Amino acid sequence: MKIWVDADACPVPIREVIVRAANRLNVDTVFVANKPVALPAHPHLSFVPVERGSDIADAYILANAGAGDLVITQDIPLAAQLVPGGITVISPRGDSYNADNIGDVLASRNLMQDLRDSGTITGGPAPFDEKLKRKFSSLFDAALHKLNQRSGGDGTR
Fold it and tell me: What pTM was estimated for this model as a whole?
């Protein structure tokens, strides 16, 4: 099991939750972004810089994540590509993307994008807050526990 973080738009409080868990469980965790991400020194934490550009970090994660891994991203099209490969995907806002819901989530995302593009809807999601952090933390812990059991216990591969 490996944790992959689409770190370009990942809120700092969520990065901190991920880092603490990775350190506690000794799970290899890779932050991928087109700008530097400050991480504490730890043998299981790494940062992969990618070039600036649309979906470059997504492409890197897609090419490197594998079945049994956990990806944290708020990019729904990326999640839709990862889920069929047996990859657990959650958003920094505590949403779980899986085979049962990814089609509906992607369709809803596309509809909302069309409505925003046409000017019918303006604005975006509610600001990130402590409630969303707790929601993410709960889902993240459950996903780690489930994946850790599947991988044999120590979280590394």
Answer: 0.85
